[in-house]
Amino acid sequence: MRLTLKPLPLLIALSLTAGCGGGGDTPVGTTVSTQSASSGSLLACIDANTNGHCDDGDASRLLDSLPATGATGLSPTSSQRVLLERRDSANRRTGLWLAETGSAQVSALSSLRAALAAQGRSATTIDTLVTALGTRHGSALESTLAASLATAQQQQGLAWQALLAWSGAVATAGDGAATLTAASSTLAAPATATQWDASADGSARRQLTAYGSQVLNNSESNRLYLFDASAETVSSREIDLVPAQRVALADQPPLLRRAWAMVEGAVSLFVDTASAATGFTTTPRQEEVVTLAPGLGITGITLVNAAQDAFVLLNMADGGHTGSSCETTSQGREGLFRVGLGDTASYRWLAQAPACVHSGFSLLAADAAGSRVAAWDATGATLWVMDGSTLALQRRIDPGLSGSTAVQAMGISAGGRFVALAAYGRLTLVDLSDGRLVAQLTGDWGNVTQVAFAQGGRRVLLASAQNVHTLVLDDQMQRLSASSVTVGSSSDEPVRALAVAADGDSYFAVTDQRIAWRAAATDSALASRSLDAGMSVQQATLAGTRLVLLARGAQDQQLRLMRLSTPLNATVGTTVSTTQATTTATTATPATVARTGA
Which residues form the signal peptide (predicted)? Predict the structure, then answer.
């Protein structure tokens, strides 16, 4: 049977109830029109940031219908992939197709080829499987693609795992009869990679960030550790940002500090020798550790530029750095630095780094390329937007948040265009490209510990107390609906961290007692895992297919760096076993379900 190149509608249940935040949504200034598929239309895009969604960072075009050839009219490079998605009037994705790399044509077979290629299958294997399916079971592939996405609650990875397992079984058996098996969503037990003696400076909240599988953290006051979370044996490269000599000089006269700056280049050579790269296979070294006073040290980090650079918020020991291109000339303690991680030198001479010193920076966000960075000035209640290379100030934005609505958390969209500023009962969305305030939304959440975008920027997640609140946005970034889910079992178990999957389709909410994995589109549970008693979670991040946690033991005051495997590596499926290939059952067909209007 020959495969037809018609669109493959997928109907999913999405029961996000309206009214969780009440009224009072007021767009400020000119609203932003972002191109997105509405009911009855298709949106094709070049998935530049490879997150599996058409979002604010992607070139796209709307199609009334897909031509018989499957052409989308886009012009991807040989390394780019085109996506085609259908969304309903509530901005919920109801269909997804993939083109092969470098191609602008999409179909069910191209989606299968793309998934097999990403899985690492050879061209011969792909041709054999696709030929078998295309000539005998093409129509079944259409219905199974839709069914696999529906049963996986819009989780792309789980959907492709189920589809590939079904396809392999059909091709092997040769009769078109195979079971569409739900992919596993089991979370592995977290294992400790290393631990630090953290009895000193116990009030400090350490930082954790990831880019792909690369993780950067500061489990000691003056040090960053860069490591690959996917490696079987984790080893790190140590990077010292605040040498002990600077701390010793912090309270000395300015003349002495300036004199010391003149010889700091020579000191960097000494520190490079004395502070060689340290592996996690042994306990991180203790000599030369700088213990800063409470409130000083690294307060924010984010990896950019394929993990070759990082933006660092550092509440410095002496306030002695002033960026040459930043507008402010104040000698405040909070410095924003762009730190290069690509070389092997352990010590970073921050006086030479692109920097912006200001007395109020407390939060930061940056696009993945590091071309633009935003920092929140808590003192002036102002958002600073800077060039990512030079940290030259591009604009300052007053979002009208201060006092009881002071900003508590900040997140950036997948394409790097929008920033979400979360406060007590308030959420402000800002367009960084031109400084416009896009929307001010209200809700019934209290203090916010973290905010993040999901589903290609069409959802915003807020962690507050024991709950995760979800706001669904329309094309103009205005609220369509809202919902909330309780993750912690009591008021003593607040959500400590949110970690959103790279594709934005799911997220992990972490408390001191458990890890909850949930679908972003349906806000339903996928899996959970309990944590050892007595742990206090500080941060969590997703590094490739691993969830990495930073936690403190209640009894021994040890900081533990833990990681666990997740099913997120199911993006391209798994090898089909002989048993699966001979399983006989009816081919799955998509189920039609009711949709709840916003």
Answer: 1-18
